[in-house]
Amino acid sequence: MTNSKEYKRVTVKSLVEMKSNKEKIAMLTAYDYTMAKIVDGAGVDVILVGDSASNVMAGHETTLPITLDQMIYHASSVVRGIDRALVVVDLPFGTYQSDSKEALRSAIRIMKESGGHAVKLEGGKEIKDSIKKILNAGIPVMGHLGLTPQSIYKFGTYTVRAKDEEEAEKLISDAKLLERLGCFAVVLEKIPAQLAEKVAKSLSIPVIGIGAGNGVDGQVLVLHDMVGMTNEFNPRFLRRYMNLFESMTLSIGQYVSDVKASDFPSKEEQY
Question: Percent of the chain, pLDDT > 90?
Fold first, then answer.
């Protein structure tokens, strides 16, 4: 890490500064107060209230079913738990793709009702009018290119994107467009590391990767994957820092047998 600077509060301006100081940006998801408090206290720079809540919190197969009301609920819970991190909230599928006025209404609701600091939208040129409208209202926007999970049925699969030249060229021009429009950062998901590095070098705004190699300005993972609460999801880009699934299963099993054996509560644990 170079030229690390202490930030009492991380803002969109801090992230651009971090990029120019060559300090990597650490970003994680959170969806509730208790987890957000832990993530924020551990020094994470950006907390993403991701529409991945649809998968890890609600058990849906894709991110598509989650609603704007549900995203606001998760985001407001997270905001109450943080002191330092920048909170970015995903605009869910269907709230910005077809109509820029609806996109603006959705973003305003997120900002007003959750207290989040910025919104994230998936896509490039196709959604430029929505991005423009939201930015004109003074709401910071983070872009998202590469594998865009809200378009899963168009791709048909969660495999690596932008491997062919045509898709790579479109990704580069979309990234440059997002910067020109005024986005403060871009997430690149599941694309070749070399391409991600090329994009990061050609933009002055931070590029945050997930499955996009180490040549970008920061990394993001889904919290539940990173601490090993989920155990069925094993992409190459995921590093599990602990196995919470196993620890919790053992602890809960122990609790069950203590209750069954009348071992809990003990004399010391009653009034």
Answer: 90
**Collapsed DSSP state (helix, strand, coil) of residue 149:** helix
**Average pLDDT of 48-61?**
96
* C-alpha separations of 258 from 247, 254, 262 in Å: 16, 6, 6
Residues in the chain: 271
pLDDT digits (tens, 9 = 90+) for 110-125: 999 999 999 999 999 9
Identify whether the C-beta of residue 235 lies closer than 8 Å to the C-beta of residue 211. yes
Per DSSP, the residues of 205-233 read S-EEEESS-SSSSEEEE-HHHHTTS--S-
**Catalytic amino acids?**
189
pTM (two decimals): 0.96
Tokens describing residue 179: 């910067």
Give the residues across from 96 on adjacent strands: none
What backbone torsions phi and psi does residue 219 show, to the nearest 5 degrees? -130, 150
| pLDDT for 1 beyond 90 | no
| Partner residues linked to 210 by β-bridges | 189
Token pair belonging to 248: 């919790």
Q: Which domains does the chain have, with CATH numbers?
A: 12-240 (3.20.20.60), 242-271 (no CATH)
Helices (H), the chain: 12-20, 33-41, 53-56, 68-79, 100-114, 128-136, 152-155, 165-181, 193-202, 223-226, 244-260
Separation between Cα atoms, residue 103 and residue 133, nearest integer Å: 8
The DSSP H or E segment spanning 120 is: strand 118-120
The tokens for 238 are 């995921």
